[in-house]
Amino acid sequence: MSPRPTVRKVNLTEMFGRFKDQWSPKIVGEVNDSLVKLTKLKGEFVWHHHEREDELFLVVKGRLRMKLRDGDLVIEPGEFVIIPHGVEHLPVADEETHVLLFEPNSTLNTGNVRNEGRLRAAADQAGSRRVHVHFAVGFIRRNPALRRRGL
Description:
With 151 residues, the protein is α+β, with helices and mostly antiparallel strands. It has a single domain (12-148), classed as Jelly Rolls. The chain is 24% helix and 36% strand. The chain has 4 helices and 7 strands. It has helices at residues 12-16, 116-126, 128-142, 144-148; strands at residues 26-31, 34-44, 55-61, 64-68, 71-75, 80-83, 89-104. Strands 1, 2, 3, 4, 5, 6 and 7 form a 7-stranded antiparallel beta sheet that branches. A hairpin with a 2-residue loop joins strand 4 and strand 5 (71-75). It is globular and about 55 Å long.
């Protein structure tokens, strides 16, 4: 008999309060072959695209400006944008912005851009399940209220 899957809820405010670094997505869940990530953004990223992966950016707090080659979109709290694969984009956050990302587990945050950040992202991705699971588990271990809720 297969073990029963774990069901848990995630409090976004609480999870965002657990880290300070920006432009470094944290995996907080997995749905089939896709990952749910939380990240804090401030400033400008790099122009890039993803060859095979679509990305969903859901703004939880702040404001995200998504530069596209044919114009900009402004995404407010409670709104999301889906960037289809192949579309060049440049995320910009003038103030710290909290974003939930939903994307295939093969997605590197730098997409097609090859630089030191991409090498670091690729290395991180190779161990991401272990690293990010420890990130979430660490939250739970340090917070008895989460443990009581079954997280």
